[in-house]
């Protein structure tokens, strides 16, 4: 067994102090080092995924059990999305954070001092950045409940610092709010995981068999895990932290937080609930599908009302998490797979949108209010194209990947309803599909307000940013379209894995 | 050679798509090459489609598949049967002509790269719809054309006042009726989206029971219908799928987007919103109608579907015709007319399933699709030339133009005659075929009303068509034109690159008209043979029955009456038509009702836009900010307590630790002095500590690790 995945997880962590030192010396160029580390790790992931459909590395971890890293059909889409986004955004971070930190330090008169402070901050940024990416990856590869929880927390801490130190607005308060909310969720999750581990006698997921356990306790464990994860997923009622955190985080981090991180909640629902507690999962799916539907509609309605471009995108993420919850609740293998695919689609789509927003913020010197924007398609054509691709992906229009994921997701939900003969669920699914019109509505309104119409006087001189912004945008747009035309890259391994738990499928 | 034929159906739609993707590349070389290459790639699609015609005429079918999503048994593929080849050929050639026209019409526009990209992307997707062998792939084309429609309606997205559609200052129920291009594009996208959602719901339900998206499999293995029927979802699923066609083809109740789509460049209106895309819905019904008809165990199971189609078709035809009668803008008149004529096609495809002979209505619908595509494309291109020449989109700003624009006049007269149903022009035959098919329907209870509506619509059609001809080409030049004349803008004939495409189409209209009856027979022969071949349960009664005298008399009377009234008021100008509404309050009310689009547009806007916006605003204010955020704030209050604790931790723990590691940090960074004190520095060290712990964990694992 080659130590591939362990490298992919720990190399960025090991290198994270190094990047700080580098930052002190060479400033923003340290970002290229972070980029190289992540690129290498991404290639490792792809290599591992290519070598086996169910790639597993196990390390002894007594007394807890096994420290395993597993790359199967379910974790590949997540792992690949997380690292590809992290890699692409590392490049994008270089110009964006340069702009952002310069804003912060411009008051300092002494040039040398300002330079030093800048280098210090940018080094720190990439330090957190690497740890954050590795934390997310570790979470989706974990095979052990405790290990899962450690990584789950590990991704929270650097992101907390990233918001607290590099964010906008009332960032300290917001980062604390973010920390507290997600922590409450994490503690609920921890309670569920510990109970599950101790009751079953194992922390290794592969050894846990809940079928023979006391069912009356399990439902409570399932509820604790679900609610805990729904905080991360920002389900309706548990979402209030998200618009704050995602709007005020530095934009590359928003682009990671919004699609990559919160969606991990969806992964965890599948891995922990569906795989470990299938009977309990069946019981709660009806409730969670309604919860998902409400989240879809509510997030969309809120998005319609926003004037801040990043807050708008944040509410859109709430709505999109509703889709993921909805698909996971379908209790049908195509629907659950559709949700996983939706994570990927939303990952590329929303990252594109946040990056486009960041490009606008950078190039207009900080304008975030939509009412002060307009007519930018002529000034920022590549940003406009990227935003359009991103919007179409989240509306679910072919040839974007969002279409493939959405039809699978909704089909699964219909199939689940028809299989059980549940008329109520049939109507809920139809309602959810109708609610996608809301998604189309708020995105097109935004497109129009930001990019079309007369270009206002103060935006006449806005120019497209350099290649470190446009190439990441185009790269992600390319992936978005590629997966839409050829969904097999995601689905071919994913569907059989989900089918093996839920039944169904050709195999 | 046999292999080449297998590849051809792919090439038909792939070539224009490649053309679209290469547009920016050509644009880099130079503008002229870009413009020419755009038309060349469109021609490539048209030629490929034409090369397939022999296959269609010999009644053969090419079906070629490749795996797409293997784990769900979904293939991508093309199905080139007589239906798709025929439609693809018509569509591709019209596309090519309009591309040529565009070179002249769009000349000098600064955003032509975007224009050509969307145009070729549109053509590729349109042909993809026609040639797909399964629903899922068709849906790609389906949404692709919608996307292009959105992008091209809003092409002039600077939203300058001159590009608005509708009359400024005209409000209905408090809502302005003039739309900016970007708003009109959005409206089109949203409204067709509603249809698409309906389509998708129906489709996914169908897929659950049939396990396939493939048209051929749905036609061959009809077991799925039994389950759908027993679940009570057979007709709902079918009607939901039909909903997609309603949206795309602008049928009631989703017809309101098309008139405002006229905000796009006229070449776009000609291509997308008259000749091709809006027919996609008709094509969908032509694809799916037989599948459902064939799958039903007894015909009565499927009758509600076809009754729905027929009613929606005829009602839309009537509804839109009433609005065309009072339209003021030439493009809007043509747009209402398009909606109305598509209604006829839907009617024909609806009565197909209600007759003993499925092929009668089916052929009539597709015949009308063809003739309408040709004459309406020409009408729009002519309208574009008129707008160019006169600098106005309003009919009353034109007048007396037949002397100055002779070729345009003759061409438009021919194609307008075809729209009106003048004998021996293509539209006469196709409309007559629809009326005849309607009379032939065996479902009689409501057929007489449907037939009456169809005839009344034909009268209105003849009226508004000749009204347009009269207002534009006859009488004296309008004040607007005289003023332009004084300013030195003389009215000129359109340049050749614009003129030739629509004269060719006028010629085609004439040619099909002359051989009309035989053309219809040939089409009937080809399509009915194909229907029988593909569907086990569709039987063709041989011979189309020739000319139906009742239908013939009705259509002749319709064009006679409608044409005469228009002649009286607008061509001969024997009386002033404005007097009618001035002197009669009922006529005035009716005029207002029609002109305000039966108030549907405004009501939709209130119900689906304004109220959602309002609801969203209220929820945001009262629930999100008023309740949920408040709860969170109380959490935040407790964070103050937390941050006090945090401060204590900072000072007593982190600081202590950081001081301890400070020297290590200095060595590490190679910096000899601490640059900064304060909270951030401590975070760094806390962080380094965490990292160190993790690395230790990692080493521990590696050292003790036993590979499994």
Structure explained in plain terms:
The complex is a heterodimer of chains A (507) and B (708). Chain A is mainly alpha-helical. Chain A has a domain at 284-507. Chain A contains 18 helices and two strands. Chain A has helices at 5-26, 30-51, 75-105, 111-141, 145-166, 171-200, 215-232, 241-248, 251-261, 264-274, 278-304, 309-328, 333-363, 381-395, 401-420, 423-451, 467-485, 488-502, and strands at residues 55-61, 65-71. A two-stranded antiparallel sheet of chain A has the order 1-2. The model of chain A has no long low-confidence stretch (mean pLDDT 91). Chain B has 708 residues and is an all-alpha fold. Chain B is built from 26 helices and four strands. Chain B has helices at residues 2-29, 31-57, 82-105, 112-131, 135-153, 181-210, 215-220, 223-230, 234-248, 257-260, 266-275, 280-295, 299-325, 330-352, 358-390, 406-420, 426-439, 447-473, 479-487, 496-514, 516-534, 549-571, 578-583, 585-595, 600-669, 679-704; strands at residues 62-69, 74-80, 171-172, 175-176. In chain B, a hairpin with a 2-residue loop joins strand 3 and strand 4 (175-176). The longest helix of chain B is centred in the last third of the chain and has 70 residues, at 600-669. Chain B is globular, with a radius of gyration of 31 Å. The model of chain B is unreliable at 653-680 (pLDDT under 50). At the A-B interface, helix 1, strand 1, helix 4, helix 5 and helix 6 of A face helix 5, helix 6, helix 25 and helix 26 of B.
